[in-house]
Amino acid sequence: MSKAQQLRHMLLDSEVTRVAGVQDALSALVAEEIGFHAVWASSFAISATRGLPDMSLLSMTDYLQAASYINDVCEVPVIADCDTGFGDVLNVAYMVQRYQAAGIAGVCIEDKIFPKRNSFQDAGQVLEEPGVFAHKIEVAKKSQHGDDFVLIARTEALIAGEGTDDALKRALQYADAGADAILVHSKSQTPHEVIEFLHRWPHVVPVVVVPTTYYNWHLNEAANAGVAVIIYANQGLRAAVRSMRDTLRQVYEAGSSVSVEPEIASVADIFRLQRLNDWLALES
Ligand code: SPV
Ligand code: MG
User: Fold this and answer.
1) How much distance in Å is there from the Cα of 196 to the middle of ligand 1?
2) Nearest partner of 207 among 230, 185, 228, 232, judged by Cα
């Protein structure tokens, strides 16, 4: 099965698909090893690795390169976060062609205007007209080869404060336009608005959620509410920053790494993630 076929099956089977947000190939290998079913090539995390904010500063080529590095070493499918689709409908068409050619299983585009701002930034959350976004979806689906490539349409209606009615109306329009799944994003501290959305959703296509701010929501509760896919979008990135900072501070202050050695990954562990032995076997 191709990775796109695998992702398509995951969307439709009864088990909740658990997806880790990753920033690079190494973090993706860690997520895969733990057992996550797929990885999310996060625009927030990929921008952060470049030391830049998540506000459409990086180009499609930058994001595609990052997603390809991940896809090249991972066995699990990659869902690439493609923001607004990097422009208008023909940019979306080109995006689908390039991502599919790179072997990426699926992409996600969101109904905001370019340049978009990260969803947790208070200012500048400007929604796209739903008809304009639905057209992007139609063109995206027309641009792919075969039936397997996955397009997730993300509505930012709740992020923009437009409420559940608008989120549902948009999501239905996007499903009608051919989206394979709907991502409904929320920055609420509780899952209530997402639960209301799910309760009223006719389940014409599966629903994806990103419980970053409403992190108290357990996987089983989400499953009971009808969620198909959960993305833990940035916990790995945030853990990495905290851990690097604490470790480097201790090394700097102590003048040696003695106190951190038991806490950090061994060099052998990194070798293993790099599949050093497989590479050495190639030349033997
Ligand atoms: C990302 O991980 O880049 C996302 C999710 O799009 S969020 O940061 O919540 O917008
Ligand atoms: Mg993003």
Assistant:
1) 21
2) 228
